[in-house]
């Protein structure tokens, strides 16, 4: 049975959002979700020494194309913030920050897990939001289709929201619109938000492959086709097509 899609037909709220925007499928869908929901939206990206740094290269053009999707989105989409978090790459030893083979570790987590990454991302984003007067953080964390990363879990995000608000005397909201849907419904959410044009934009212009390969354009997008991110994206695209035909 297909997971439920969040309500995207709500009127724009007065809240101002900051979207964690990597240049990948999930964050692009989250950006569209925020643009459909909030009156002002800014984006933030992180250079943490990632092996797939090509995601940083596609971000500017991708943001321009998102602005071109509609006049309303163009008016709402504000400043982009790029943050140097190369410290993560220096202190971590993972398949996303080192040129090593992707495999499972003794603790049951894949070595693509970067300890503390999302915790630090959200903390830095909250700091930028504080300065910019933004009161919503939007991230693409999900525990329906994921690799077991503990910093993608709903409990983690809820606890982090409490900690950030206590530590900063704020009332920030952490929104994770993909938390309870699978990758097939992430594609479907994109179509509901921006039509087939947004689906095609995500296919052709985003980057998710862990190995940083662009190569040929597959039906589901660019990538090596064999890493966990590519396999998940391809499987989700197939499920999305099947659900559209049902």
CATH architecture of the domain at 14-183: 3-Layer(aba) Sandwich
Which quaternary structure do these chains form?
A: single chain
The unreliable regions are: 1-12
Helix/strand order, N-terminal first: EHEHHEHHEHEHEEH
Shape: globular
CATH superfamily of the domain at 14-183: HUPs
Radius of gyration: 17 Å
What is the topology?
Layout: E1 13-20, H1 25-37, E2 38-47, H2 54-67, H3 71-76, E3 77-84, H4 86-91, H5 117-132, E4 136-138, H6 154-168, E5 173-175, H7 183-205, E6 217-218, E7 221-222, H8 228-245
Helix pairs in contact: 1-7, 7-8
Protein name: 7-cyano-7-deazaguanine synthase
Catalytic activity: 7-carboxy-7-carbaguanine + NH4(+) + 2 ATP = 7-cyano-7-carbaguanine + 2 AMP + 2 diphosphate + 2 H(+)
Family: Belongs to the QueC family.
What would you say this structure looks like, in words?
- This protein has 8 helices and 7 strands, in the order E-H-E-H-H-E-H-H-E-H-E-H-E-E-H.
- The protein is α/β, with parallel strands linked by helices and 246 residues long.
- The protein has a domain of 170 residues: Rossmann fold, CATH 3.40.50.
- Strands 3-2-1-4-5 form a 5-stranded parallel beta sheet, sandwiched between helices.
- Strand 6 and strand 7 form a beta hairpin.
- Helix 1 crosses helix 7.
- The termini are close together.
- Pathway: Purine metabolism; 7-cyano-7-deazaguanine biosynthesis.
- Belongs to the QueC family.
- Its cofactor is Zn(2+).
Q: What's the short version?
A:
The protein has a domain at 14-183: HUPs (Rossmann fold).
